[in-house]
Amino acid sequence: NSGSSWNNCDFETNLCKVFPEFSLQPGWIRRNGKSGMGPPYSDHNGNESAYFLSLSSEMQSSSTALRTNIFLPTDEEHLCQIRFHYWVSQTSGTLMVGLQKHSEDAVTNIWQVSGELRNQWNVNTITINSTEKFEVIFSGMLETQRQGESVAIDDITFSEGC
Hints:
MAM_domain-containing, mainly beta, MAM_dom, ConA-like_dom_sf, MALR1 protein
C-alpha cells in the first residue's frame, strides 16, 4: 500500500493528497533536473526527468512552509514515520521539519539540517508520537541566492500510523 498517492508524495504529478495546499505554495517549485535552474540535476534516483520540489529563488522565507493534512493522534502500535529525501547546498541552505499539535499555536522544530553536507541527496526518517491531532510542516531557507545554491526535497512517504 506504500505506492498509493495517499502515503507517498513523489511529486511526479501535482496531486499530493497529503499536502492539500501544495499548488498554492509560492516558496517551492515542482521541477526536474532539466529545468535549467541549477542543482540538483536529477531526483534522488538519478533520473533527470523525474520531478522533485526545490526552493524558488524568488521565495520569501515566510512562504516556504509546506503543511500536511491534519493527522490523527498516534498510538503505541502505529507511530507516524515520515521518510524523505533531501538535498541541501553546502553553504547556505537549511531544511526544517516542524510539528504543530492541535492545542498549540507554535510549531515545534523536530528536525533540521544545514549546509555542511556535500551536494548530494540524503535520506532521513522521522518518527512522530503525538497524543493529539497534528500537522507536519516542511520549510526551507536559503541565506544567499548564489548560483548553484539549492534546497530540494523528494519522495516524502508517510507510514500507516500517520
